[in-house]
Amino acid sequence: MAQRVTSSIDLQETRLRYADTVDANATGITPSVRVDWNLASISAYGTYAHLPNAWSADGSATASVFTPTRRGWSGELAGTLGGSTHEDGTRTAAVTGAGRLHLDGANAGVWLGAGAGTTSDGFVWRGIRQGEGGLWVGSGPGSLTLAVFPTSVDDSIRYTDLSAQGSWHSGRLELDALLGSRAGAHLPTIASNATTWGSATAAFWIFSRAAIIASGGTYPVDYTQGFPGGRFASIGVRIALTHRPADASATDVAFPSANATADFRVDPIARGMTVIHVHAPNARTVEMMGDLTAWQPRRLSRGSGGWYTVALAATPGSSQLVLRIDGGEWNPPPGLPTVRDEFGGMTGVVVIQ
Questions:
Q1: pTM for the whole structure
Q2: Closest by Cα among 288, 333, 283, 289 to 307
């Protein structure tokens, strides 16, 4: 059974400028889905865009398999299949695979990997090799990822991309931003060989399953398919087809880590003391915060059988709390009634005896 399924559909109107010379408007629809298990994940998206007197479609699917985590270390094998087709008959395709080694803590982690594959611009297939490495840091609603991608295409094009990606998701508002820089190859036959780019996206959830989204920025040349860089601005609507984490009920709680599941219970051990138990055998870290911790994060201690525990001073009555697995989002513990807090998120309610 899947640990978590998330899916949505975006409807957008976009203004494009290719290679800083050609302007176009596009109306598009983009469905996407992600499915997570304890040690695996699959994600896919597709886009259909209608331009003046033309149409275009593209899509991609990625699958990853993880090893169990040992002392913070885990391995990953990933594969990606993608492509595009256009009204004028041109097509592109890409098939790549990669291996990664991760070292993760509660609020930070690093990874190193390498991959290879083949891509086509519709006329010629080219081999591609890519290394990668990076680090992430995250706390509460915010996270930052820094990465480097040295790439070789057919041993004739070599370049290195650097990227910084940040996100801040809290309540109804989701903000994401990307900055990139490229060193290396420059093709005189392709216009707009920009060496830096950036973009930002904002989503505001006006209802539990409907958001207004706006985005804009620039994007780089795709050397594997010969596409020029450009700039864009778009506005649209996102429809969530599954429950968002903030709207998860007590009987349908999803934790964001691909390596963690959780069961929860509270046991009094003495007058004025209680113990929180979380069963997450594949988790790297488990944290909680709530009324019992003055809303300061407390890291739980790992015990036998995949159980994490923490002893806290407590007085009889109801208390609100949330859990975080592997430095992901804060969510209500499974099996508890939930209430919405003043920021629009959900917290669990436990009764201390």
A1: 0.68
A2: 283
